[in-house]
C-alpha cells in the first residue's frame, strides 16, 4: 500500500454510492480500499488503521449519516491528525447528500457531488480531478462543483440573534476596534444590558472575516480552558480527553490557531480579570472580543460602552419577540418603562408573554408591579430582573412542578457549563426536601422529590430552558444560567439558604470521582462547580460532605501542580474535619497527610514535618489504623528525611512502610511500588549499588499495577536514568530520560513541572556529551516551565539556574554563569540553609568560575 492508495470512508447508508465511487477510481488505475470489498469478516478498525498508517489518502463521502458517525469521524480525523488544515491533501472531501459540514470540516474545501450523482460521465471527471496526486500542489481548485473553505464557527454559541435591535453603532465600533492584527475590543456595561448578545451578533455577521470564531466562557480560567478544549477537539480527536486540561488548552492557543489565511476571533464572555485575557490570547493569528462589566482595560484595548435601550426601541423589541398581537403600543411602553428598558428583563418578559397568552399585557404589568414592590433594595442586580425572574419562575413552576427548586439548586454552582450529572445525584437527607418561597401563594414542589423522578426533572429543566432561565447545550450536556438570574434565585430561598448550599455541596461531593489519573477529565468538568458550592459555605462550617469535596478538589489540583489552590482547599478540608470529628479522628490524619504532601512538593519541609508527625501520632493511637494511611505518612516523612540527607532515618521509615504494605496489601500494590522507588532515592543519594536493583523491582510493580503509560511510572524510569548516568552509561540514561519525557508529555501535557524534570535530565546528558547548544535549549525550556508554574523561590528553579550556569561555564561564558549561580545560591540558602549539599555545590561552582577567570587573566 502506498500514497496512491485511496481509502473510501463512508457511512453505512452510502454503501451503494461508495461502490460507484470505488469502481470509477479502480477503473482509472487507483488502488481502492473499501469496507464492503476489503473488510468482510475481518477486524474493520484494524484494517482501516493499517491502511491509513501505510499512507493511504482518505476519500470521505459527506452525508448526514457520515457526519453523525463516530467511526467515520475517527477515519477522517486520523487522516489529518498531524495536518489539521489538510495542507498535504490526505483528506479528499466529497459531499454526496444534502448536509452541512460542521466544526473542522467546515474549514476544509470539498467537491459537491450532489447535483451530479446521476451523471456518470461528469461524476467521473470531477472525481478523478479531485483525487489527482498533483492536486495538492495547485494553488486552488475551481469550477462549479468545488466549494472553498468556510469559517470554523462555534455552533453552540455563535448564532444569529432573533429580533436584534438598535446596536448598529456598537457593532461598527467593534469592527473598527478589531481591524488590526492582534486587536482587542471590550464591550462593557451593567449586568443584563445585553453585552453577550451584541458579541454574538457581531460574531455571526462577521463570520466570513475570520477563519475560526470561538466562544470562551471567561468568568473563570477553568471556563476558558474547557472552551478551548472544545475548540481543540475539532482539530485533534481526543484532545478534550487529556488528563492535563490546561496543558492541552495551551496547545490550542500555542499552535492550532496559526496557519490560516484569515485571523481567528476568540470571544471572551464575562471576563473580569484582564490577566486571563493576556494569558490565553494567542500571540499571533488571533483577535479578541471581550464582554465585561469592567470599563478599566489596557491602553491597547478598544472599549465600547453599552447602555440600556431607549424606551421606544425596547417596546418594539418586546412586541416583536413576544409575538403578541394584543400588545398595544401603550402597554408595551408601560412594561418597558417599568423594567427600565433592560434587555435581560425584557427577554424574560417576552418569553412569559409568548408562552402564556391567556395572561393579558395589563395583568402581566400588574404582576410585574407587585414583584417590583417586593424586590430587594440592596441587591447586586436591577429590580426589574427580580420582577421578571419571579414572573418567569412562577410560570415555569406552574408548567413543570419542581422547576423553581431546580433553578435555585443551579444557583449554587458556577454559572456556566453546569454538568447535567449534578442534577441527577440521589438526595436522601431530610433537609433536602427544600422548597423555594414563591410569590402568588404558589407552593413549589420540593427539590428532593423533583430530582428523584427523572421524568419530572427533565420536564422542569425543559421549562426553564423554554423560558430563558437556563440555556442547555445539547452537545456538552451542560446548562448555563445568567449571573443575575442566579442572584435572583438565591434571594427566593430565604431562611433556608444554608440548607440549599449544603444540598449543592452534597451533590457535587457525590458526583466528584476519586482522583485517579483516568478520572482527571471528570474532575476538571466538575471542579468549578465544586469550588463554587464550597465557597458558599460559611468559614466555620462543620459540614462533612464539604470536607470530602474540598479534599478531592485539593488533591486533584495538587496533582495538576497548582499548589496554592490545592493548599487552600486541603486546609479547608482539614478545618471542616477537625470541627466535625475532633482533632484526633483518623480522618484528620489523612487530611494532615494530604496538606503535608503539598508542602513537601514545595520544599516547605519545616511546615510539612509537624503535620506528618501529628498525623502519625493520630494513626498510631487508633485502635485499628488504616495500613495505607500509616504507610503513606511514613513514606512522606521519609521523603523529608531523605531530602535533608538524613539517610539512615529515611531508610528506617521506608522499610517500616514497606513492611506494613507487604503484610496488609501485598507487594503488587501501587503504594508498594512508590515506596520502593523512594527507598531507592536513599541509595542514589548515598551512591549505593543497591539503587538499580530496588528501582528495577519498583518499576516492575508499578508497570503491573498502573500500566506502562501512567505518569507515576516516569518517576522510577527517571531515577533509573540517574543511576545509569552515575555509572557512566549515558546511552541508557538518555533512553530512559526520553521514555520518562514521553510518558509525562502524553499524560500531563507539555507544560507540567514534571515534564521539566525530564527535560532537565536530558539536558544533563547532552551536557555530558558536550552537545552544549542542545543542553542549553533543553535547560531553557525546563526553566521556562518551572518559572511559569512554580513559586519564584522553588528549588527546582534554583537547580535549573545552576544547571544552565554549568553549560555557560563550560562554554567560557563566565559572566552569564556567575549571574545564574548567584540566583541559584539565593534560592538554595533560603530553601535549604547554608550547609545543604546543593548550597555548597553552587558555592564550589562560583569558586571554580573565579579561579578560571584568575587563570585566564
Describe this structure in words.
Helix content is 58%, strand content 7%. The strands form 3 sheets. Strands 2-1-3-4-5-6 form a 6-stranded mixed beta sheet, with helices on both faces. Helix 16 crosses helix 20 and helix 21 (497-511) packs across helix 23. It starts with a strand and ends with a helix. Residues 40-45 and 136-140 have low confidence and may be disordered.
Q: Structural class given helices, strands, pairing?
A: alpha/beta
Largest β-sheet summary: 6 strands, mixed
Secondary structure tally, helices? 37
Please bin the fraction of helical residues: 55-70%
The neighbouring-strand order within the major sheet is 2-1-3-4-5-6
Q: State Rg.
A: 31 Å
State the low-pLDDT regions, or none: 40-45, 136-140
Mean pLDDT: 86
Q: Using DSSP, what is the number of strands? A: 15
Principal-axes geometry comes out as globular
Query: How far is the N terminus from the C terminus?
Result: 66 Å
Tell me the strand percentage band.
5-15%
In brief:
This protein has 857 residues and is an alpha/beta fold. A six-stranded mixed sheet has the order 2-1-3-4-5-6, with helices on both faces.
